[in-house]
Amino acid sequence: MVGATPDSVAATVVALGGRRGERSTGDATRGACQECGFPGDDRNSTRSADTVARVELRDEYTGHVDPAGPAARRDLDEVSITKVSVGPMDNNAYVVVDRGTGEALLIDAANETERLLDTIDTVADRGKLTALATTHKHWDHIQSLEDVARATAPRTYAHERDAPELPVAPDVTVTDDDTVPFGNTHVQVIHLDGHTPGSIALLYRDPRGTGHLFTGDSLFPGGPGRTTSPEDFTSLMDNLEGKVFGHLDDDTWVYPGHGDDTTLGAERPHLPEWRERGW
Ligand SMILES: [Zn+2]
Ligand SMILES: [Zn+2]
Hints:
- The chain is α/β, with parallel strands linked by helices.
- The chain has one domain: 4-Layer Sandwich (Metallo-beta-lactamase, Chain A), CATH 3.60.15.10.
- The chain has helices at residues 6-16, 113-123, 145-152, 230-245, 264-267, 271-277, and strands spanning 57-58, 71-75, 79-86, 91-98, 104-107, 129-133, 155-158, 172-173, 179-182, 185-191, 200-205, 211-216, 219-220, 223-224, 253-256, 262-263.
């Protein structure tokens, strides 16, 4: 194993955790994504979405990747997780590979089809992409869904409440406690209603019991994803507290749909403050 140990990775992420104070509600942030609330470039960015097809792979995982930069892979006991940033909104796509069989799961075919396919071929093989899960329906997470699905023929997964707005109807609609299998392993679905009605998080539990949670835009370092009404905010916070923070340990690693990774332990102390501020 070449990747960093969990402890050193955790230390790195704590050291990198500088986004907390910078985050705002999205609308007020210049260039923020109006839908996701992530303070990246806007959708009119002049950067081409397909400028760099070849993806360099780093076997050094800190939880941070740069737009158009290398992908980063961490090896766990039974799977590897590779994170790559694609598109003008710095969307994170994740390739989770079952190391025993080589079969892979892609989480969010967000953008830059060639970079995604190249990443998959580098860490697995596009012919072994068994599953493609979409965390939610927002435009920035689905730009390559149709092309990647056509090129690789995986089973596609999404929640039924976001499914009607996806460019590819999911082969399987999923909700709480459903699983998405690939190779000899799987991730578990957690439905988080709020950022969108059909947003899902995906939980992988490693053999030591540690959780690895892919949260889409429902949970970031520094707060929940953007919501557009008090009811949606309350729903998202209730779901996060009830289904995520209430059930999973502090060492659960969080892989968000934009920006750097975090842990539930780093975010948990801030739950009351998020409730109080209302976003
Ligand atoms: Zn987003
Ligand atoms: Zn979103």
